[in-house]
Design a protein that fits this description.
156 residues; 35% strand; 11 strands; four-stranded antiparallel beta sheet; 3 helices; Umud Fragment, subunit A; mainly beta; seven-stranded antiparallel beta sheet; single chain
């Protein structure tokens, strides 16, 4: 195991665990199963170290319609299957923000909740990653060979 300090808020769900505390990384060993929802440590397309969440597995079909992730035509019913980092749908988000009297860019947020992606099918060695905060993060396909390990948690 080793520690990694992630200096970007792409995985922030409001508690800042991924940015303010060193992360404990378990290196990937042969035969270890990678599952949907795992937060992984990997090398991105620029060869830099990064973290993200596994959304789709090898051989699966993934698409996004109206800010909702679908895997093999089935709605991904998990907090990370929705556009908002806390798992809120569009109606609940706007209701919460308006009730709290918050000032925000409603038109920009409507676009955010209408994120769409045509369906793609992953190859036998590919995974689809989406950062928890869609607004600050990325969506991408990576090869299994780029995965270094799993984020187990953080240290105090």
């Amino acid at each position: 195991m080793f520690l990694y300090h992630h200096n970007y808020d792409n995985m922030d769900r409001g508690n800042h665990d991924y940015t303010e505390k060193p992360l404990v990384i378990e290196p990937l060993v042969e035969g270890f199963k990678i599952s949907r929802g795992d937060v992984i440590f990997y090398h991105n397309e620029n060869g830099e170290k990064d973290i993200s969440r596994i959304i789709a597995l090898p051989g699966e079909k993934i698409k996004i319609t109206g800010g909702q992730v679908y895997i093999n035509s089935q709605k991904l019913d998990a907090f990370y299957g929705f556009a908002h980092r806390l798992g809120l749908d569009k109606d609940r988000y706007f209701e919460m923000m308006d009730e709290a009297g918050n000032q925000y860019n409603k038109n920009g947020m409507r676009e955010y909740f209408e994120t769409n992606m045509e369906q793609i099918k992953l190859a036998s060695d590919e995974y689809y990653l989406i950062d928890d905060d869609w607004m600050r993060g990325k969506m991408r396909v990576i090869k299994e060979q780029d995965i270094v390990g799993f984020v187990l948690g953080y240290t105090e």
